[in-house]
Amino acid sequence: MMKDMRKKGKSRIPFFKNEDCSSKSFWFICGLSFGLVTLPLSTYADNKANEQMLLVQQSLQQNRTITGSIIDESGESLIGVSVLVKGTTIGTVTDLDGNFTLEVPADATLVVSYVGYKTQEIKIGNQQRLAITIQSDNKLLDEVVVVGYGVVKKSDLTGSVGSVNSETISSRGATSVVESMQGQVAGVNISQSSSRAGDGFSIQIRGKSSLKDGNPLYVIDGVVCENMDFLNPMDIDKVDILKDASSTAIYGSRATNGVVMIATKKGDKDASKTTISYDGYYGIKAKANMPDFMNGDEFLKFRFSRYLVSSMDASNGMTNWEMTDANFLNFWGGGSQVVKDMYLNKNYTDWADIVTRDGSQQNHFINISGNAKNITYRVGLGYQNEEGIMYDGYERWNIKGAVDHKISDKVSAGFSTNMATALKKSGSDYSILEGFRMTPNMPCYYWEGDKAGQLISQPGKDEVVYPNGGGPTSSINPVVDRLNSKNDTRSYDVMANIYLQYSPIKEVILKTTFSPMYTKTHRGTFYNGETQLRSGKTNMAENYNDEIFSYTWDTQANFTKNFGEHSLNALALFSVYEQKLEGDYMNVVDMPFDVDWHNLGSGTVQSQSSYYKKIAILSYVARINYAYKGKYMLTVSSRWDGSSKFQKENRWGMFPSAALAWRISDENFMGFASKWLSNLKLRASFGVTGNNAGVGSYDTQALANVKYYYNFGGSVANGYGYTMTNSDLTWEKTTEINLGLDFGFLNNRINGSIDLYNKDSKDLLMEMETPFELGSYTGSIVSNVGKVNNKGIEIQLNTINVKTKDWNWETSFSFARNINSIKELNGTKEDLVGNKWFINHPID
User: Fold this and answer.
1) pTM
2) Which end of the chain is more exposed for a tag (fewer CB within 10 A), N or C?
3) Contact predicate 291/385, CB 8 Å
4) Alpha-carbon gap, residue 747 to 797, rounded angstroms
5) Backbone angles phi, psi at 305, to 5 degrees
6) pLDDT for 142
7) What pLDDT is attached to residue 539?
8) Residue 60 CB-half CA count within 13 A
9) Does pLDDT of 25 surpass 70?
10) Which of 528, 334, 353 is closest to 444 using CA atoms?
């Protein structure tokens, strides 16, 4: 724990100067007064110093050295067990043989702790040699789960929450936190549409609840973020995924698609000394699940059949196939001897292998953490690098800092920050595509002559390969395209969190938290004339700049009280959220130099644009958690959100929720199963959440942002006006019912959960077609006219098969079945064939 840093009071003795007194009299009086004052103070100080010296001597005489050994239940010695004198920073850790030596004061109590084992407190007494056995701790029910604006024990949880711990995340060896979570939580579908290094993943929780694509809400250490791609997996302590509406409703209008709560690692208040640790890995990536391409012989057989000419024999009705001389010549690419030699020698080109490679990825993270004088701290530095299989790359640096200070028994404060900079090199957009399309009977490099070993720019048009013409394609060599294309994205992310907490009485905690977030992204692209995109044209460059700044300021009050067998936890919160987005874009051609996007002024501007957006949300939150005998639990909450996106009449939305839980395993009538049943809890919940992600910052306002052309006196004139808007837009709302069962057997070595849910989403945003005469520039208008239903089942099963000092074997099984169906479109039960949306069928 942190030491009380309050300063002791200092005695002050005032004196006053009499202006009628002479200077000598004044200084004489001052000197006399000072002497009279300091005489007793000096005597007191001497006495106090003597007392302190005596106490120190007595303490030194009372301190003694003890030794001990620590083993587990099977008798195995444990290495690195923390042994700490309670209430002090005096401590040590066990050596390779599980032994320790420690100098302790009289009547000391030792605190023995080790990851995966129960913490023990041992009074030393007169013992000189200690033999300590610690027991494994399957702390499933005592595990803390992060929920909105607080934490609860898993045993007290009333909603549906899936968790992934740090060990699971770091053991996957991925450069992305989201990738590390794949397959770990039932009902959470994580996918990636691209295999490029550094590309993000999408998370879908319990199906699609909106006709527009939507992502879950990410909350990192209390900070609302756009994503968590900038985090280093080695810095994650735990990820909790709030799935049902009773859990997510606390975040109201942004929680329809679920909430992902990320807690990063912080300093350990129980640490006895500064700890420096390193985590890292290096891995190789290889291609997998590649398409089954035709080899050279197979392709030539296919090509031969394409040049056959069919005719019908009138006498018998049979089809005859023949190859004309002209077609036979074209089959060989205008009679190309190069193509013939490749066929005879079976020396085909494996384009798929040329445009791909074996990649690698690595992650290194150094942590420095400790606890000193009521201050816990943690500093981290991380580096990640990924070389993609498509000749792309990704590199990221992370700096993490966190400090928590217990200023006094009533006041505490803290600050944390996470900064990251990343560079993603995506390379060519066409190299892989054209490489997969290229025929195997075309060479990639010149094989003889002065150009031997050089790349052939256009293999299908090259005179050496096809001297008579007749090449099958005009595409640029995909290797040439890759070497002359650039697509780099540099990003900067800074996240911070600062809080001040005050507890006037034991039952009340007042806390205010300010959490800013800043993201800057710059993307530059460059394509010269030897690329598939430009193909003989002049150089082209693009420049994108985007900035996002947001902050959340939460002020909350918590009241916690136990009344006999009753416990109550109440929360009241006021929150302010603001986000500003701005950016610009420029496209330039005719650049005379290959200088990427760094000299745009040398070219001709094709297009340019810029934007600015701002949104704000005010929120009020109330929540009550009640428990009776630890067996019957109730959670009731409500959130009121007001968004600047909507007009005043529809600006505010209310999102209530309620949940009940019954721990059946704690009932007396379940005593017969106490030896093998560790946990059995029934849950039921109801909640309403919202979504406004599909509404732009100014979609409900009439803005002069469309340029119109018209006839003015026989001349073409133009001006700016507005398009048709819908001022009645409001929140998409989802109502969900969830029924769940948590279970655990054999001291929770076998544990899991079963959940059934039904979600109805209404007032979904979609574009309704309108006549142009009504004033819509696009011929449509966005309205709340859709309905979607999601229902399903989730099963999670975890087992601890073997757990010893040297080997830990755990398994996790998950099963989920979600049925997604559209119930209404455009306010009716009619299909929209153009959008591929059909009533009673899934969105996708």
Assistant:
1) 0.79
2) C
3) no
4) 15
5) -65, -30
6) 58
7) 93
8) 5
9) no
10) 353
Strands 259-264 and 217-220: parallel
Look at 124-128, 142-146, 574-578, 812-816 and tell me which has the smallest mean pLDDT: 142-146
Determine the residue type at 798.
Answer: N
Residue 2's pLDDT is what? Answer: 38
Q: Say if residue 293 is exposed, middle or buried (CB neighbours under 10 Å; 0-12, 13-18, 19+).
A: middle
Which backbone phi and psi does 797 adopt, to 5 degrees?
Answer: -135, 125
The residues pairing with 640 across neighbouring beta strands, listed in sequence order, are: 620, 654
Residue 774 near residue 722, CB atoms below 8 Å: no
* Rounded CA separation 736/246 (Å): 8
Residue carrying the six token digits 């054209």: 434
CA dihedral of 640, 641, 646, 649, whole degrees rounded to 10: 20
Strand-pair partners of 685: 659, 738
Query: One-letter amino acid identity for 736?
Result: E
How large a percentage of the chain has pLDDT more than 70? 90
H helices, E strands: number in the chain: 10, 37
Question: 60 vs 65, 86, 103, 362, CA distance in Å?
Answer: 11, 18, 10, 51
Nearby residues of 525 by Cβ (< 8 Å), 6 or more positions away:
485, 486, 487, 488, 541, 542, 597
pLDDT (mean) for 688-717: 85
Q: How confident is the model at residue 10 (pLDDT cuts 50, 70, 90)?
A: very low
User: For residues 560 and 67, what is the distance between their CA atoms, to the nearest angstrom?
Assistant: 42
Report which of 488, 550, 551, 485 is spatially closest to residue 521, judged by C-alpha positions. Answer: 488
Residue 701, pLDDT > 50, answer yes
Tokens at 811, concatenated: 């398994």
Q: How far apart are CA 548 and CA 227, in angstroms?
A: 12
Predicted confidence at residue 138, as pLDDT, reads 57
User: Token digits for 684?
Assistant: 């039921």
- 769: number of Cβ within 10 Å: 12
DSSP bridge pairs for 733:
690, 762
Phi, psi dihedrals of residue 253, rounded to the nearest 5°: -75, -5
